[in-house]
Amino acid sequence: MAVHLHPLSPSDLLPIPGIQLGYAMAGIKKADRKDVLIITLTPGSSVSGVFTLNRFCAAPVQICKQHLAQTTGIRALVINTGNANAGTGEPGLKDANAVCDAVAALLEITPEEVLPFSTGVILEPLPVAKIITALSAAKANLIDAGWYDAAFAIMTTDTLPKAYSSSQEIAGVKVSMSGVSKGAGMIHPNMATMLGFIGTDIGIDAQLLNTLTKEVADLSFNAITIDGDTSTNDSFIIMASNQCGIYIDSTEHAAYAPFKAMLLATAQDLAKKIVRDGEGATKFMTIEVKGGANLEECKLVGEAIAHSPLVKTAFFASDPNLGRILAAIGYAGIQDLDVNHVQLWLGDVWVAKDGGRNPDYREEDGQRVMSEAEIKVTVDLGRGQSERTMWTCDFSHEYVSINADYRS
Amino acid sequence: MAVHLHPLSPSDLLPIPGIQLGYAMAGIKKADRKDVLIITLTPGSSVSGVFTLNRFCAAPVQICKQHLAQTTGIRALVINTGNANAGTGEPGLKDANAVCDAVAALLEITPEEVLPFSTGVILEPLPVAKIITALSAAKANLIDAGWYDAAFAIMTTDTLPKAYSSSQEIAGVKVSMSGVSKGAGMIHPNMATMLGFIGTDIGIDAQLLNTLTKEVADLSFNAITIDGDTSTNDSFIIMASNQCGIYIDSTEHAAYAPFKAMLLATAQDLAKKIVRDGEGATKFMTIEVKGGANLEECKLVGEAIAHSPLVKTAFFASDPNLGRILAAIGYAGIQDLDVNHVQLWLGDVWVAKDGGRNPDYREEDGQRVMSEAEIKVTVDLGRGQSERTMWTCDFSHEYVSINADYRS
Fold it and tell me: Main subcellular localization, coarse class (chains A, B) (predicted)?
């Protein structure tokens, strides 16, 4: 069902010097499925992360935050699917720590140098023994070229693996970057992805990477939504292995701007892939809100449109029932919105002019755009200069089926 | 598909002295369908209304507010289905005024004494000629016992008509009350129903009725949600015809408290009926949030649970995938929520204790409750004494079908 998301080929993905990845099949929820992943980092790497704002954040998320605060040298990540280890209280923390301890022992590092991640069903105890048993197989599989299998190993209800690689010359040096992500429901800004990992061989100051991670997340993973449900486990991690010969120590460094652009392109690609493979998605929608008095109100309007089940089902039906978009703009929360200044375009078709139906709008023009698989909605609020772009998908029968059947 | 909502019988509904109702078939969207309704009120009646907060509020809503502010003596309501007259700009206002003018001419009253209502598709011009042509038939049909047909005449995607009547002795006098409402999608607090009308033969001061209408709406129509979409046309109207011999002039009046209770019971019944007939509904859920530090945070949590597509699809599947409820509590927006004090019950089953899975919780107990058609979810936030109850329904394949097909 995914929208313009193509199957992955191993040759699409570049190895990143200093980063190795190894999977295992632990049988957490299903047999014969890659469901455990270890990522190792060479000493001297910088790692930064942003995490879910959900107050019921999962045990591994809590431990990630602790470890990132405690140590400057993260050396390994361990990820399992099939169980979120969320809503599990004190035993959940104990379980996540047990996994970190086991990884540390196996790799001869300290537990604080390990970041744990879990994704899957909430409120069920983590099958720790299965995961720990599988770790040695994951270690044995560690290779530079592990990104391809990693993309599979972090999937849950995703129908296709999601990954992106690129390399480019920055300040005279070849810099490489690879990333993987997974969706595909319980997707909402702050954070938007349950899991996203990007690795690069550049070197960068840890504080600078922290700031950059937040900026990039806001314009990529925090700009997508599938169903408006903010997960308990969302995590986005950037790993910089400092192997290519560039070390960025300030925003003034010649490599900073091109590196940031490269990072943003990678994160946006991975985020959009999550939307393309949103549960039951048949349409990919770009929602551009401009003319806002401030960024916040552009976000409100973008999210109202992107979350509306009525808008999303109309897109599923390819029905230009565009009054539903006006209704969403109207309830988004801008108290003093003067609707007489609002314009709405569907693709290149001007639908609503000055708050009402554009006299020149013809249903068949709307229908033509609605029939496409990739659709852009543009709203001009007529209040100022701020703008915000979001990406979302439609709402289909398949979404209901997937989420009604998820545990069976 | 409606949940425990029974077909209406004409004998269920009491006539209200001083109020007459008459329908017509104008062929607005479909032929042979009751789609226009006139309600007339005897001189000396009090009328009060609350309306959608959507900034794209429909032309008739704007005119209702004007007329209620301009005149003390509303004498007639005119309602059409099949077209919302929303997102229609200046021509929409002209159209709604033309309908009021026609009703006024027909009934020999002034246009300011008429309140117009429309419900249906947004962004399409109102077929004024069809409506005006049908008005004389509606006038010819005016009867005291018109509530039964009125319940049908205001339906759109509703599968069953919604109405409620009761009479009781208040301060030694028999007081009667009848009401009708319609849903069934684009339903969200502020306002929750697209249309709700209650008539009673009591007399009441206009200002007092205004205050009472807001209070009652908050605990009934503003406490339900189907899909979180706030309509452009929501309106809730109370009409008091002053025919039974009681006139309430202050909150100290002996009849005030019993009348308020009667009104609340009627409004809650009509509101819950909208949920029972929510688009595609197979389950009716009562969500009680207690232990909040204030009412606002109880609302946030109740709405987060009630809006979550993941929670709603799990209920559709009768799957006790209850971690999704914890996730919704966690992202509801209480920044300082200590999840270790949160308790969750499904019916009488204690699912989450102190923020984690209750050690005594058994899946089969959760499954037993989930299999029922009416389910209560209770959340204790462990922070204070405030509480709030909401009503919602599940999210099924049928919802997608209805909204993907709505215009066809």
Answer: cytoplasm
